[in-house]
Design brief:
single chain, 529 residues, alpha/beta, 11-stranded mixed sheet, two-stranded antiparallel ribbon, 16% strand, globular
Length: 529
């Protein structure tokens, strides 16, 4: 998702290392396997007369044929907006992936929108991925950049809210063509091969990157867009996925990328695992922002003192440890002051609040629990007297029903009719994911350095919400500050808005970030001339 999408239970132990897991078969993308295969990929039409088909004895369909997605559907669309009309071609379809033995592995679903009458060689095309792992691209498509959207502001949306698709005046289609991709196990994307091995390959950090990079390349080839300026946009776990995809495209696929756009990214799991003190440093400014917004509007400028404290005296007192009672009480009292949480509670926790503890304690006296994706959204705690948190996320889980229904309705509007259920956010994918912990928790800062060093024209835009407790903005600020001089502003830009993980759910933030993306692509096009 947009964000749990980033949750990881680090206590789970894996028996296989990531290296061993990925030592299996490679994955290829193509319209159809070699002629010896009798499998037709989605979008490829069979030929031959009815008489010829009747002459062949009936046979049981293969597993791949039983699970395949329908042929691609391409329709012409017109979007009527208050100040303009956009005419475009929409395609809902899939790309089939094969292993190195030409055996079909998975059908990866996508939805693309290409503006009519544009010069394809100069017009950008942007590929969108969400996070999770296990999230579909519906959050970015229907909440942010697609031609149609629904309201997803968790402060006003409920599970029973009407999922009404409305023209999106803030669509990015004005300045880039759009391709929304659902990794296998999300949306309508699915395995066509059986067995555990194929799932192990795809449900892993590198296997995921390799398969999605192939899909990007195949879409470009299929739609004759290899010459177009190309951008990758990724959210949440997309902070791991996005830089690695760009790196794979550059090195393994022969595809150059003009820009990388990350929304609410998590770029280094090491900072949020085990005994790392950085998890408390990264989260404190967002905790303070949640407390400040109760009294009125807040911007990042209002948190300058908190940021300095988090990286200064707070960190110094954390390092001293609980063995230093004076330092521990000092930081616990300051945290209580910044967050409004009872001083006794803060001292009991030594001022070290993990996200679940902050969410529970912030408004516990009123029986409310703060959202993980947006801490400014408070929901009713169903078990206010329980010794542990047993609540869902009032800022995230309320979106599941309206977004799922809207995604299904959009698919039908585009005249594409897959069977099976639409998976907005798959817990099964997330639970099955191999993060490679036997080596080290995944991070993408190494790939960021590599891709920015290899291509001096490549730009990076990172957007965050102040109240996001899942992937706090200050964590990205700390990581970006560690990059070398060649990766400094304005080439690398961080923007922060009032909002949560899906900060674009708020009108002002959505419009502002759209402007940042448009400016980035315009600058890239001018440099390419």
């Amino acid at each position: 998702m947009a964000g749990s999408r980033s949750s990881v239970v680090w206590s789970r132990v894996m028996a296989l290392t990531l290296t061993a897991l990925l030592a299996g078969q490679a994955v290829y993308a193509q319209d159809a396997p070699p002629a010896a295969q009798d499998t037709t990929a989605p979008g490829a039409h069979r030929t031959g007369s009815a008489g010829n088909r009747a002459a062949s004895p009936p046979s049981s369909p293969s597993a791949a044929e039983q699970h395949k997605l329908p042929a691609d559907s391409t329709t012409t669309q017109k979007l009527e907006l208050p100040d303009r009309t956009l005419s475009f071609t929409a395609t809902a379809g899939s790309i089939r992936l094969f292993d190195d033995k030409s055996e079909p592995q998975a059908d990866i679903a996508y939805t693309s929108y290409q503006l009519d009458g544009a010069d394809r060689a100069s017009r950008p095309v942007t590929f969108f991925f969400n996070g999770g792992p296990g999230a579909s691209s519906a959050y970015l498509q229907l909440g942010n950049a697609g031609p149609w959207r629904i309201g997803i502001d968790a402060a006003s949306v409920t599970p029973s809210s009407k999922p009404e698709l409305m023209p999106n005046a803030d669509t990015w289609l004005d300045f880039t063509d759009l391709v929304f991709i659902d990794p296998v196990g999300t949306g309508y994307s699915r395995f066509v091969a059986t067995g555990d091995e194929v799932r192990k390959r795809f449900f892993s950090v590198d296997g995921d990157v390799r398969s999605l990079s192939l899909v990007v390349r195949r879409w470009l080839e299929k739609h004759d867009r290899l010459a177009s300026p190309k951008f990758i946009t990724a959210e949440s776990y997309g902070g791991i996925r996005g830089p690695k995809i760009v790196n794979n495209l550059q090195h393994d696929q022969g595809i150059g990328v003009s820009g990388l756009i990350l929304l609410s990214p998590l770029m280094d799991f090491r900072d949020y695992s085990g005994s790392s003190l950085m998890q408390y440093v990264a989260s404190l400014p967002s905790y303070a922002a949640v407390a400040k917004q109760v009294k009125g509007p807040v911007t990042r400028a209002d948190l300058a003192d908190v940021e300095r404290y988090a990286s200064g005296d707070f960190l110094l007192d954390l390092v001293k440890g609980e063995a230093d009672t004076e330092a521990t009480n000092r930081l616990a009292d300051r945290v209580a002051s910044l967050t409004g949480i009872d001083q006794a509670v803060s001292r009991r926790l030594a001022g070290r609040f993990d996200v679940s503890e902050f969410r529970r304690e912030f408004d516990r006296k009123n029986g409310r629990i703060a959202g993980r994706y947006d801490g400014s959204v408070l929901g009713i705690d169903p078990y206010p007297d329980s010794s542990r948190s047993r609540s869902s996320d009032p800022s995230g889980d309320v979106l599941t029903a309206p977004l799922t229904s809207a995604a299904v309705e959009l698919t039908r509007r585009l005249n594409w009719h897959p069977d099976g259920s639409y998976e907005l956010l798959s817990g099964a994918v997330n639970r099955s994911w191999d993060f490679g912990r036997s080596i080290s928790p995944p991070e993408s800062t190494g790939e960021l350095r590599q891709i920015l060093a290899l291509d001096p024209k490549l730009k990076l835009l990172v957007g965050h919400g102040l109240f996001d407790l899942a992937t706090p903005y200050y964590g990205s600020k700390i990581l970006l500050d560690q990059l070398p001089a060649f990766a400094r502003p304005p080439r690398v830009k961080l923007v922060v808005y009032p909002g949560g993980h899906m900060f674009y759910s708020r009108d002002d933030a959505r419009k502002a970030f759209r402007g940042e993306a448009e400016a980035m692509m315009k600058e890239g096009r001018e440099e390419a001339r």
